[in-house]
Every structure is written in structure tokens, then in C-alpha cells.
Write a structure and sequence with these properties.
The complex is a heterodimer of chains A (484) and B (125).
Chain A (H helix, E strand, L loop, with lengths): L7 H20 L9 H21 L4 E3 L4 E3 L1 H27 L7 H16 L4 H19 L6 H32 L4 H8 L7 H18 L7 H8 L2 H24 L9 H20 L5 H22 L2 H29 L16 H4 L1 H15 L5 H14 L4 H27 L14 H19 L1 H8 L8
Antiparallel strand pairs in A: 1-2
Helix pairs in contact in A: 1-2, 1-4, 2-3, 3-4, 3-10, 3-13, 3-18, 4-5, 4-10, 5-6, 5-10, 6-7, 6-8, 6-9, 8-10, 9-10, 9-12, 10-12, 10-13, 11-12, 11-17, 12-13, 12-16, 12-17, 13-15, 13-16, 13-18, 15-17, 16-18
Chain B lengths: L7 H4 L1 H24 L6 H4 L18 H25 L1 H29 L6
Helix pairs in contact in B: 4-5
Classes of the chains: A mainly alpha (484), B mainly alpha (125).
């Protein structure tokens, strides 16, 4: 057998991430306990090379590995989101782990492996390859969620995330099996060909699609598959919570958009109605429960559920415009949430063991640390969807895509939900600016250099997307291979 | 689905029928014995059955986590061996391509091996 013709340039971003992960993991036991931070620096250097490689592949829109790996702009855009999310998480983690006395180098290769899994997920329309990426990502995240081994809550988060995640994986595989059984192929394009033109759709294609919806619904924490999210988000180390809400969510949505929106979703009856119900339930339940949370990580977990509900609108609408809008929304949401979790991780790292994650911890924060307060305010406004922030732009293009297809009821529900969400986001702002701390205020550590860089980047990006969205939207209005 | 033109639901109907039958039989047997059977309870009857020998200690012992580590490492390298067999059988057809693929595969596992040895996961004490 001769060597197959593999386009290594197209693979280069994910290959670089994977090789960096392997090499840094190999390095971990050779470094002394005091020098584990070297791994962090090597990891972000590797990621920045991968980001450069991504920028070199934009516009190529080619496939390799016999069509199993798609290097279209859609996958480059999402790879960009994942890599930036991983870098920002690493920058946040360096000082966090040191303060929590949990400096184990394995943390960084695990982030890289998770990033690699996400990139694989977003770069294929083959159900098996998507599943492979999903597992690489999930297994790394289970470990990361329980990385604070001595904390009971972190262990609880890992166990719950793992058990429910593994359960959801079963649904995904079962769904893939049904779809394969009906159409005889794993490739989304092949599935469309097999499903189109049939006078009556096979029952098992509907069952398979529904099972896939359940599996991915778990990963994006859509109601009623959201139960794991609050506990997993609360218990995981703060930088990882930010990473979990940005990267894996974007990856799962990228795969869902490829499978359902661009793929065979329109050929399956009732699927649109199903998405409509799940979207409305997700945004409503997420927002209403978030109103009553007193732990900021838990509050943002429910907020993350609500945002998944908004993004599910793109799957209801199912047009190319909606897919691009969802991509932009995910970018905006990832940057905003990562930014918010930078501040949360900094405040949290003030305590070695007990976590400073109650919203009361933020009382009067803006008086003592005006810049931190302003940054967190900006992120909260962006999450709530105020102009001129990224969050507003994301919501605007997404809702516009839905309105242009006539989904008025859905958008009215979504806008009402956004209004509800303003209350709990602004509650944090009110605590920071307008409340006097009673008793000893919490000591927030000084901002370390790397966190400063990451925070400045997040603030700039959130404002830039909010003020000048055209460039980003043109980039997000990208060509998606897979239906060819 | 098949040449007789059955939809896939119809082909699965016998299985569905069998499930219904199994449920009916199960419910019937338990129901009848619950209704007609006599029950007598005593402490001796509630004890765990250990081949007639009296129970001395709790069954749930704590094991060293090292057993688990060794078991899971065994699975990893066991699977590696399993993957080597099909390659060995088709070695001639796969040629240089197969060799390169296998070397990459083993290199990746080697990274893991070096990692666990260096971490002392295989050391028993």
C-alpha cells in the first residue's frame, strides 16, 4: 500500500496542538516540583504557533483524509475560538494554581488535549470523527473538573460530570448507530443523499436524530439535560469553569450546526419543532433559576444554560445566515465569559481553600479596585446584551437571522428572556459599585502580569466586536463544506 | 427495507412481541408468588448467605489504589498489543506505510509509558 496523499498543511493547526500536548506531558515528570510553570509557558507558545497555522489555512476550504477532515473556514473560525480560549485559560491559571498550591503540570497538557478534541469535532462532518473528537475533549475535561483533588466540591463536580457525560455519550453513539443503520454511511453529505427523495422518512432516522439531539444536548447543557452543569461549574477550578463554558460549548454547537443545520436536519420531520421546544425551555429555565443564585459560578452556570438556549435558535432557523450568526455569538460569548472568569478566578484565588465565589464577596469591589470592577461590569453587560459590546452584536445578528425567516414568537420569547437576565447580571454590578461591605472586605490579590495581558485582550476584543462587528461577521459568514 | 417491502417497524414486530411476552410472564410469576406465597421473617433469614458459614467481617474491604492503577495501565498496553496483531498479519501488504503508521502509534504510547514510569506509577512501595 502506498502512502496516502495527506494535506499536512491543512492538518497543521490540530497537529501542532496535539504534539505540543504530548511533548509537554512528557516533560512534566522530568521537571522538579518548583518548575512546573515551564509547562504552562511552553503550552501557550505552542498554542500561539497553532493560531498562526490557523491563520495560514483561512480561505483554503479543502478536505483531506478522504473527506473525513474538513479544513473549511467554518472549522478555522472555530479552531481560532478554541485556541484563544485555551490560551486565555492558561494565562488565568498560572497564578491561580500557584495561589491554590496545586501546581501540577499535567493541567496544561490536559487543556491542550481538550483543545485538540474540540478542533477535531469542528473539523469533520463524519459522525465517527466527530464522536472521536467529542471523547478526546470530554475525557480531558472530566479530569480538569476534578483537578483540585483535595477539594470535595471539585471531586463531586468531576464525578457528576463524568457519570452524566458518559451516559450522554451512550445516547450519542446509539444515535449514530441508528443513523448509520438507516443510511449506511457516517458522512453527513451521504446521509443527506440517502434521506432526501424518500417518500416517507424512516422511523429510525427520526429516532437516531433525536438520540443525537439528546447526546449533544447534554454537552451544551440544554434543558432538560442541564442537571450536571451547575454542580460541575461550581466545583471545577474557576479558570476551568470559564474554559468549560467557552470551548466545549462552542465545539458541541459547531458539531450540531454541521450535523443538523448544514446537514440532514431539514430532511427529518418534527426535528425543527423539537429544537424550538428545547430552545425555549433552555433559555427560560436557565434565566429563571439564575435569578436566585448566590454563588457567582453557579449563577454563570445557569446563565450559560440560558445562552445555549439562545444559540439553539440558530438550529431552529437552520439557514446559513443563522449558522454564521451562531458562530459569531459563540465567539462573543466565549470571550465575554472567559473575561468574567478571569476576574472570578482572581477573586477566588484570594483564599487558599475556601472559595471566594459568593456574590457577597464582590461587595464594594469596584471602590477598592476600580479597573477590576469596570472590567467585570463590561463582561456582565456583554452577557446581558447591552451595546456596544460583543454580546449585543451576537444577539443582534442571531435574532435578525431568525426574524428574517419569520420566527417572531421565538424571538419575542428570547428578547423577554434577555430582559429577565439583566436583573441577575446587574446584581453583581450593583454589589460592586453601590454596596458598602459590612465587616472585613475580602482581600483581592494584585493582578499578575499574564492575567493582566489576558484581561486586557478580553476587554479589547469584547469592545472591538461590539463597536466594529463587520469584519468579524464577514469572517463568520463563512463557507461551510460538508454538504458537498 | 427488504425485498418483501416491509417497513422497518414491521420487521421489528416479532422482537416487540417478545418483549411484551417477557414482561407479562415476569409480572405474572412475581405477582402470583407474592399473592399466594407465605412469608416468615427472622434475623437468621436476613443474614447474608455465605455457604452456611457464619459471617465474620464486612465484605467491603479497602484496597490499595495501586491495584486500580496497575489494572488500568494493563488495559492500555493490552490494547496496544491487540492493535499490533492485525498489523503483523497484514505486514507485507501494508509495507512501509504500515510501518510508519505503527511507529507513530507506538511513539505516542511510549510517551505515556515514559510518563508513568517517571511518575512512579509502577513502583509498588
Amino acid at each position: 500500500m502506498s502512502f496516502p496523499n495527506v494535506d499536512f498543511a491543512l492538518l497543521s493547526p490540530s497537529l501542532i496542538v496535539c504534539i505540543t500536548a504530548l511533548l509537554t506531558m512528557l516533560l512534566v515528570p522530568f521537571l522538579g516540583e518548583k518548575r512546573q510553570v515551564v509547562v504552562a509557558h511552553l503550552s501557550w507558545i505552542g498554542l500561539s504557533i497553532a493560531l498562526f497555522a490557523v491563520s495560514q489555512q483561512i480561505g483554503k476550504n479543502a478536505t483531506t483524509f478522504g473527506g473525513m477532515f474538513l479544513g473549511d473556514d467554518f472549522s478555522q473560525f472555530f479552531s481560532g475560538i478554541f485556541i484563544v480560549a485555551a490560551m486565555l485559560t492558561i494565562f488565568t491559571s498560572i497564578d491561580y494554581l500557584r495561589r491554590k498550591e496545586n501546581e501540577h503540570g499535567e493541567y496544561y497538557p490536559l487543556i491542550l488535549f481538550a483543545t485538540y478534541g474540540m478542533m477535531v469535532m469542528a473539523s469533520s462532518s463524519n459522525l465517527l470523527v466527530i464522536f472521536l473528537g467529542l471523547e478526546i475533549m470530554s475525557v480531558s475535561l472530566y479530569v480538569l473538573a476534578g483537578f483540585a483533588r483535595t477539594e470535595l466540591k471539585s471531586t463531586e463536580a468531576a464525578i457528576k460530570y463524568f457519570l452524566l457525560g458518559a451516559f450522554a455519550t451512550g445516547f450519542t453513539v446509539f444515535g449514530i448507530a441508528f443513523v448509520y443503520g438507516v443510511t449506511g454511511t457516517f458522512d453527513v453529505a451521504g446521509i443527506i443523499n440517502a434521506a432526501f427523495g424518500q417518500s416517507n422518512v424512516d422511523t429510525f432516522l427520526i429516532i437516531g436524530s433525536a438520540l443525537l439531539l439528546i447526546g449533544f444536548g447534554f454537552k451544551v447543557a440544554a434543558v432538560p439535560f442541564h442537571m450536571w452543569a451547575p454542580d460541575a461549574y461550581e466545583g471545577a477550578p474557576s479558570p476551568i469553569t470559564g474554559f468549560m463554558s467557552a470551548g466545549p460549548k462552542a465545539a458541541a454547537f459547531a458539531a450540531m450546526l454541521r450535523i443538523f443545520s448544514v446537514g440532514f436536519g431539514s430532511t427529518v420531520p418534527h426535528l425543527q419543532t423539537l429544537f424550538w421546544i428545547v430552545a425555549v425551555a433552555t433559555m427560560t429555565v436557565g434565566n429563571i433559576i439564575a435569578l436566585r443564585q448566590n454563588n457567582i459560578k453557579r449563577m454563570l452556570a445557569f446563565s450559560s444554560i440560558a445562552h445555549a438556549g439562545y444559540i439553539l435558535i440558530a438550529l431552529v432557523v437552520g439557514t446559513g445566515e443563522a449558522s454564521s450568526a451562531a458562530a459569531l455569538y459563540l465567539l462573543a460569548y466565549a470571550l465575554t465569559n472567559l473575561g468574567a472568569f478571569m476576574v472570578i478566578a482572581l477573586v477566588d484565588s484570594g483564599a487558599k481553600h475556601d472559595e471566594f465565589t459568593s456574590i457577597d464577596t464582590y461587595t464594594g469591589l469596584a471602590r477598592k479596585r476600580p479597573f477590576l470592577g469596570l472590567a467585570l461590569t463590561l463582561f456582565m453587560l456583554s452577557l446581558a446584551g447591552f451595546p456596544p459590546t460583543a454580546g449585543f452584536m451576537g444577539k443582534f445578528v442571531l435574532f435578525k437571522a431568525a426574524v428574517s425567516q419569520g420566527f417572531y414568537v421565538l424571538i419575542v420569547i428570547a428578547v423577554l428572556n434577555s430582559l429577565v437576565s439583566v436583573f441577575y447580571y446587574l446584581r453583581v454590578v450593583v454589589k460592586m459599585f453601590m454596596t458598602e461591605p459590612d465587616g472585613q472586605p475580602v482581600e483581592v490579590p494584585a493582578v499578575p502580569v499574564f492575567l493582566m495581558v489576558a484581561l486586557a485582550f478580553a476587554v479589547a476584543a469584547v469592545l472591538l466586536i461590539g463597536v466594529y462587528p463587520q469584519g468579524w461577521f464577514n469572517f463568520a459568514g463563512l463557507s461551510i463544506l460538508g454538504a458537498n | 427495507m427488504s425485498e418483501v417491502g416491509l417497513t422497518s417497524f414491521e420487521t421489528y414486530f416479532p422482537i416487540f412481541f417478545q418483549i411484551v411476552l417477557a414482561i407479562i410472564i415476569g409480572v405474572l410469576m412475581f405477582g402470583v408468588s407474592a399473592m399466594l406465597g407465605r412469608r416468615s421473617k427472622s434475623r437468621v433469614k436476613d443474614e447474608a448467605y455465605e455457604c452456611g458459614i457464619e459471617v465474620t467481617t464486612d465484605t467491603r474491604h479497602r484496597f490499595s489504589v495501586k491495584f486500580y492503577l496497575v489494572a488500568i495501565l494493563f488495559i492500555v498496553f493490552d490494547l496496544e498489543t491487540v492493535f499490533l496483531f492485525p498489523w503483523a498479519v497484514n505486514y507485507k501488504q501494508l509495507g512501509l506505510f504500515g510501518l510508519v503508521e505503527m511507529v507513530i502509534f507506538i511513539l505516542i504510547l511510549l510517551v505515556g509509558y515514559v510518563y508513568i514510569v517517571k511518575k512512579g506509577a509502577i513502583k509498588w512501595d
